[in-house]
Amino acid sequence: MTAAIRWHHASLTVAAIDPAIAFFSAVFGFTPLFIERDMRDDIIALTGQAGLSCDFTQMRSDAYPLILELIAFHSSAEPRPEADSLPWRPGVGHVAFHVDDFDGVVALAVDHGASVLGRAIDFPGGRSIYCRAPGGAFFEIEHLDMVAM
Length: 149
Fold this sequence. Notes:
Blueprint (H helix, E strand, L loop, with lengths): L8 E5 L3 H12 L2 E9 L1 H7 L4 E10 L2 E12 L18 E5 L3 H10 L3 E2 L4 E3 L2 E7 L5 E7 L5
Parallel strand pairs: 1-4, 5-9
Antiparallel strand pairs: 2-3, 3-4, 6-8, 7-8, 8-9
């Protein structure tokens, strides 16, 4: 692999941009680097889908080296499907956040409108839980013992 390849961002598709920005800001400390609304020509070119537009943001937090992108698509050609309730379907992904206070961050996420999908699991070296943010994006909260990292 060449040194010229670097990870830049992870993107989550959401139903509406503003509630998603508020959620990831309040729970995980992200702040928008920029917000672009009603992007049309570029998103049509990128996706090959006529009639598509989007609102999106890229956000950064001092706690994470990765940029988080949130994108809400809109189509004049067809109605937007409902958010997928199943995180294991092909094409659906999630991002994971390592936190120091597992129970506290799970409670904070739920207080800000997230739903927990199942239950927390314990595994050698940590704990994990899957959640769904307002707007439908999936994310994982995990606590990893520093020894295991």
